[in-house]
């Protein structure tokens, strides 16, 4: 089911979940998922579960994890309202994921790097995702584009006023982090304009070495 057709009456904070780029990222994840739906799929920082709720019936198993228990309860309601029956939910912190090494075929990490306050923490998180990804498995992640000067200015202003961070990343930064563990960026889609200094963000697929 496309996200536009979902019953979203249970969403408590529409402003946090239905921004233009945020929705765009989940729609791209939905498109990319069609090539990745076999095996075990994890949505890290799944929030209220909108991504899984919008998927066509997958052939593999789905697991969602988030730090915030109230959002996990919200996702249960959204799954119920949309007759999604096949998702397991686990509360957990992405810095120390409660999963074995090499356990997932597909890992989605959507709309979350934007709020990670430092490069050091972002590195820890991505290393953790790479730890739990199976050989040949894939990690799907988005970044807001630090190469876009308007976005950089917008985030700089936001960070002066608000308690929570918003930030962009350069594609080469992410590619470099993935390369440290032998992962390669195998697909990418620009969000918004395609020019590197105008793109709002990128949606990426990184594949683990065999
Ligand atoms: C902006 S929301 C995105 C939710 C969802 N992925 C989506 O695209 O709709 C970011 C999510 O990351 C979760 N999160 C932030 N830090 C986390 C951490 N350290 N461990 C697990 N989840 C975390 C938040 O609770 C929140 O649900």
Q: Can you describe this structure?
A:
The protein has a single domain (about 5-205), classed as Rossmann fold, CATH 3.40.50.150. It is about 35% helix and about 25% strand. With about 210 residues, it is an alpha/beta fold. A seven-stranded mixed beta sheet has the order 3-2-1-4-5-7-6, with helices on both faces. It is globular and about 45 Å long. It has helices at about 15, 20-35, 50-55, 70-80, 120-130, 150-160, 170-180; strands at about 40-45, 60-65, 85-90, 105-110, 135-145, 185-190, 200-205. S-adenosylmethionine binds near residues 46, 66, 67, 71 and 110.
In terms of DSSP E residues, the strand content is: 15-25%
Bound molecules: S-adenosylmethionine
Which fold does the CATH topology refer to?
Rossmann fold
The number of distinct helices, counting runs of at least 4 residues, comes to: 7
Please name the fourth-level CATH homologous superfamily: Vaccinia Virus protein VP39
* Cα distance spanning the termini: 33 Å
Whole-angstrom Rg: 16 Å
The overall strand count is 7
CATH class: Alpha Beta
Largest β-sheet summary = 7 strands, mixed
The multimeric state of the shown protein is: single chain
């Amino acid at each position: 089911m496309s996200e536009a057709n979902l019953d979203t009456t249970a969403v408590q904070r529409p402003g946090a979940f239905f921004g233009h780029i945020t929705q765009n990222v989940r729609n791209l994840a939905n498109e990319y998922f069609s090539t990745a739906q076999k095996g075990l799929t994890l949505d890290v920082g799944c929030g209220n579960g909108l991504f899984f709720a919008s998927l066509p019936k997958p052939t593999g198993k789905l697991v969602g994890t988030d730090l915030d228990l109230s959002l996990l309860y919200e996702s249960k309601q959204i799954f119920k309202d949309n007759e999604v029956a096949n998702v397991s939910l686990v509360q957990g912190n992405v810095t120390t994921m409660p999963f074995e090494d090499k356990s997932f075929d597909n890992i989605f990490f959507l709309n979350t790097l934007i709020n990670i306050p430092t490069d050091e923490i972002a590195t820890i998180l991505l290393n953790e995702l790479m730890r739990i990804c199976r050989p040949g498995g894939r990690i799907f992640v988005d970044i807001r584009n630090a190469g876009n000067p308007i976005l950089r200015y917008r985030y700089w202003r936001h960070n002066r006023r608000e308690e929570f961070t918003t930030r962009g990343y350069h594609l080469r930064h992410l590619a470099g982090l993935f390369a440290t563990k032998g992962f390669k960026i195998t697909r990418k889609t620009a969000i918004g304009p395609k020019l590197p200094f105008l793109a709002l963000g990128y949606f990426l697929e990184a594949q683990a070495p065999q």
